[in-house]
Amino acid sequence: QVQLVESGGGLVQVGDSLRLSCVASGGTFIDYRMGWFRQAPGKEREFVADIRNRYGDTSYADSVKGRFTISRDVAKNTVYLQMNSLKAEDTAIYLCAARRSSSTVWRNWGQGTQVTVSS
């Protein structure tokens, strides 16, 4: 069972940057695809980005393409989400998730980190 711990959230201004981190433990890191999701108040959880840890291939939601970058450090069992040009609508709880690369179910979730973008 993979455990995920996020960090790096905070309060920033429109146009600022933040980098979120997600440290994974309890599994073989390169066997997993890891992703970031977000949930704003009153809205459904939505996909942000994901990365296949073994090969580094990525995918993004259209709303963050060109502004956010997901990456991983295999030696540190850590996935990052670099968020640039933040907008007020990026305000949400950001959650890290993991699934085996052979699975379609996001089975493991972190507790989330709050990102607030103030205008």
List keywords for this structure.
single chain, 119 residues, mainly beta, seven-stranded mixed sheet, four-stranded antiparallel sheet, 11 strands, 54% strand, globular
Write a structural description:
With 119 residues, the protein is an all-beta fold. It has no helices and eleven strands. The protein has strands at residues 3-7, 10-13, 18-25, 32-39, 46-52, 58-60, 68-73, 78-83, 92-100, 108-109, 113-118. Strands 2, 4, 5, 6, 9, 10 and 11 form a seven-stranded mixed sheet that branches. Strands 1-3-8-7 form a four-stranded antiparallel sheet, with no helix packed on it. It starts with a strand and ends with a strand.
The rounded Rg comes to: 13 Å
Strand content bin = over 45%
**Taking all residues together, what is the mean pLDDT?**
96
Helix count, per DSSP? 0
| Major sheet details | 7 strands, mixed
Furnish the topology, listing elements before pairings.
Elements: E1 3-7, E2 10-13, E3 18-25, E4 32-39, E5 46-52, E6 58-60, E7 68-73, E8 78-83, E9 92-100, E10 108-109, E11 113-118
Parallel strand pairs: 2-11
Antiparallel strand pairs: 1-3, 3-8, 4-5, 4-9, 5-6, 7-8, 9-10, 9-11
Summarize the structure.
Helices cover 0% and strands 54% of the residues. The protein has 119 residues and is an all-beta fold.
